[in-house]
Write a structure and sequence with these properties.
Layout: E1 3-11, E2 29-34, E3 38-42, H1 49-57, E4 64-69, E5 72-73, E6 84-88, H2 99-109, H3 114-127, H4 143-155, E7 161-165, H5 173-190, E8 193-198, H6 201-207, E9 210-215, E10 218-223, H7 225-230, H8 235-240, E11 245-248, E12 250-254, E13 257-262, E14 265-270, E15 281-285, E16 291-294, E17 309-319, E18 323-330, E19 335-341, H9 346-349, E20 358-362, E21 369-372, H10 380-391
Parallel strand pairs: 3-8, 3-9, 6-7, 7-8
Antiparallel strand pairs: 1-2, 1-4, 4-5, 9-10, 11-15, 12-13, 13-14, 15-21, 16-20, 17-18, 17-20, 18-19
Helix pairs in contact: 2-3, 2-4, 3-4, 4-5
């Protein structure tokens, strides 16, 4: 596929702020999105995702770096001069206009004739499933319909890149999920490149082809949603996307066996080839790969949790509609979440997993994910090793 969007070395400071809000490292922030891709910028408030989006759209000027769209440097162009359009969370529709006039407003400002404008408005409304609603006013639409009208208005000028600034944040859960499907379908029908900003990891993973996870003005990992869960690179990524419980402690390697020991637990698994043994590492235990079983007594796991199981007691049960979450507090104070599918679990049905009951949580070594513990700063020797490895 061909890259539609290329951002290179973006950096940004704001008045009164110490350091860079975006791109604190000298190399800045670099991302690219391919033609027809839905690319998500994911992270907490203040991580730099919205600043990145606004730099792409031309609403904010970067202190350093370039933005290329379709191979052309647009860094010095104003928003209306760029082949982009933006959909905001607040829709920004004109309440006194009909939906078709809202959608066609940008074309009218560009001097497009009435006949051509009418034809393109009809096509845009059909694209978002609002062909029956063109004569209505904004107040006569539901929240989801208004959001689709905003998408149609953004799409009608056929931008190379459509920027989505948390457009679903104000919708209820059911409507948000419907609109997530709408966005995916719209992207597939239009072939437009979407850049979607969100702090909701479930939303990002549900709709995006690739996700850039951001933290403190940096892009820390770019991958498909599946790879983010299968192979998070750092403890921060694993925790933010809720890939599992992160176990921190001292790490060591013996042959092809890697181990993290801490909080009265020892977690062992296959040594990760992409992580140097000298780095501070953590282990991630995915809730889908954990097993939980009743114990006769608390602390009855062999060797006090030495190996591939640990003792604890049920702290709480959470039903989320698709699974039962069993939260277990281990003897070392770790909260392990175990996901159990609906139906067919005898221990859950007979009350053996009610809060306060002693249990044993176990896992297979091959299911353990090892990540860099980015909460621990590397030593000078580790930094040198990283630089040499990255140079190679």
């Amino acid at each position: 596929m061909t890259a539609t969007l290329n951002c290179r070395g973006l950096r940004k400071t704001y008045p009164g702020q110490a350091g860079y809000a975006l791109g604190p490292d000298p190399e800045g922030v670099s991302i690219e999105a391919e033609r027809g891709e839905l690319f998500a910028l994911l992270g907490p408030s203040g991580c730099g995702k919205t600043t990145t989006l606004r730099i792409i759209g031309g609403f904010v000027n970067a202190d350093a770096g370039t933005v290329e769209i379709e191979g052309k440097d647009v860094s010095g162009l104003r928003p209306y001069q760029r082949p982009t359009n933006t959909v905001f969370q607040g829709y920004a529709l004109f309440p006194h206009m009909s939906i078709e006039n809202n959608v066609g407003f940008g074309l009218k400002m560009d001097g497009v004739g009435k006949s051509e404008r009418k034809k393109r408005v009809a096509k845009a409304l059909e694209l978002v499933g609002l062909e029956e609603f063109g004569k209505r006013k904004v107040a006569e639409l539901s929240g989801g319909q208004a959001q689709r009208a905003a998408l149609a208005r953004a799409m009608i000028k056929e931008p190379s890149v459509l920027l989505l600034d948390e457009p679903l944040g104000a919708l209820d859960l059911k409507l948000r999920r419907q609109m997530q499907e709408e966005l995916v379908n719209l992207k597939q029908r239009s072939g437009t490149t979407f850049v979607h900003v969100t702090h909701d990891q479930e939303e990002a993973c549900a709709i995006a082809d690739r996700v850039a996870v951001m933290n403190a003005g940096r892009v820390v990992q770019v991958d498909s949603p599946v790879e983010l869960f299968r192979a998070p690179k750092t403890a921060y990524v694993a925790e933010f996307i809720n890939a599992g419980t992160v176990i921190r402690g001292s790490s060591s390697q013996s042959g092809d066996v890697f181990e993290v020991a801490g909080n009265q637990m020892r977690v062992r698994g296959r040594a990760p080839s992409r992580i140097s043994g000298s780095r501070a590492c953590a282990a991630v235990l995915s809730p889908a790969h954990l097993r939980v079983a009743p114990s006769a007594h608390a602390g009855s796991a062999p060797n006090g949790g030495d190996g591939d199981q640990v003792a604890g007691q049920v702290d709480r049960l959470v039903f989320n509609g698709s699974t039962h979450e069993v939260h277990v507090q281990t003897d070392g104070g770790v909260d392990l979440r175990v996901d159990l599918p609906l139906g067919g679990n005898e221990d859950l049905e007979n009350g053996s997993l009610t809060p306060g009951r002693p249990v044993t949580v176990s896992w297979r070594p091959e299911d353990v994910i090892f990540v860099v513990d980015d909460g621990v700063a590397p030593t000078a020797e580790e930094e040198e090793e990283i630089e040499i490895r990255e140079a190679v």
